[in-house]
Write a structure and sequence with these properties.
globular; 8 helices; alpha+beta; 301 residues; three-stranded antiparallel beta sheet
Length: 301
């Protein structure tokens, strides 16, 4: 991999097994890729059914989609535990067998092997997503909460952390997902213009999300990525991204899924320690803040 000043990107020398050359060029240019038929449709449907069962969603009773109105990060239930689902859409379901069937499918491994150029990968253990349509009957579900509102990054994008590692995030659509159905939103090609964009921002800008007029400008050009059931959407962590409001008639049901190389050193950038975590999933922590950069990024200071 070579450093592009603000981000790391592989200089590909390996043949592709699951992806086409056209897909690779699109991935390189846009920083994201939709891969259809990443898993068999029956596996996607089984996982969607498991998510519905977990959150208590009954499609014959639409009000069941909106049962919990508490925030999964800030609020607690009477028993003191956090809710496992709420208006942000995230579903705290990690180890259901239907999710492991997706994570272990050979084609998923082939896709990430093509993206990283190595077959020595491990799979992330991430959660699911169930986002019903926005409706005036359930106003609490019109507010996704601070964490999941607008565009954000899951890596520290400030200049002192450049080049950003070659870290790939992914989400698998378990059902057909229209662009207006709460689909993933992102800014295509942003990795290539991060440096120019950053030069126009305040030195103390947020490392986690664009703010003010800059946020509004990026929000205006963000693309909602609709795709068919069993499609895997992957994106470079340098791309601002976030969920869109669901203005359709059916919920968005999906599962977050990615893989990481066993040896992350080639994808970190020269200034990071070889054993530094590649990404938030690799670090096993949500602490991607400035005070944690030595631990998470392997940087001094």
């Amino acid at each position: 991999p070579v450093s592009m000043h603000s981000f790391v990107w592989p200089n590909r020398t390996w043949p592709l097994a699951a992806l086409t050359e056209t897909q690779w060029r699109s991935w390189q240019d846009e920083g994201y890729l939709v891969v259809p038929d990443a898993v068999p449709l029956r596996l996607a449907r089984a996982a969607a059914a498991a998510v519905r069962e977990y959150v208590g969603a009954d499609d014959t009773n639409r009000s069941s989609w909106y049962t919990n109105v508490l925030d999964i990060y800030e609020d607690t239930l009477p028993d003191g535990k956090r809710p496992h689902h709420g208006p942000c859409g995230m579903v705290q379901m990690f180890h259901h067998s239907s999710l492991w069937a997706l994570r272990q499918h050979p084609r998923v491994h082939e896709i990430f092997a093509d993206l990283y150029g190595t077959r020595r990968l491990f799979v992330t253990v991430d959660r699911a997503h169930f986002k019903p349509p926005v409706t005036t009957e359930h106003p609490a579900w019109s507010d996704a909460g601070e964490v999941h509102s607008g565009l954000h990054w899951d890596v520290n994008t400030r200049r002192e952390n450049w080049p950003l590692p070659y870290s790939i995030q992914g989400v698998l659509y378990l059902e057909d997902t229209a662009a207006a159905q709460g689909a993933l939103r992102l800014v295509p090609g942003f990795h290539s213009r991060l440096a120019a964009w950053d030069a126009a921002q305040p030195a103390d800008r947020s490392s986690e999300r664009p703010e003010g007029e800059a946020a509004a400008a990026l929000d205006a050009e963000a693309l909602s990525v609709g795709a068919a059931a069993a499609s895997l959407v992957v994106w470079h962590s340098a791309l601002p991204h976030g969920p869109a409001p669901n203005t359709q008639s059916a919920p968005r049901v999906s599962a977050y899924l990615s893989m990481l190389p066993v040896d992350a050193a080639p994808f970190l950038g020269a200034q990071r320690a070889a054993d530094a975590p590649l990404s938030m999933a690799d670090a096993g922590t949500l602490a991607y803040h400035e005070e944690q950069r030595q631990l998470v990024y392997g940087l001094g200071g």
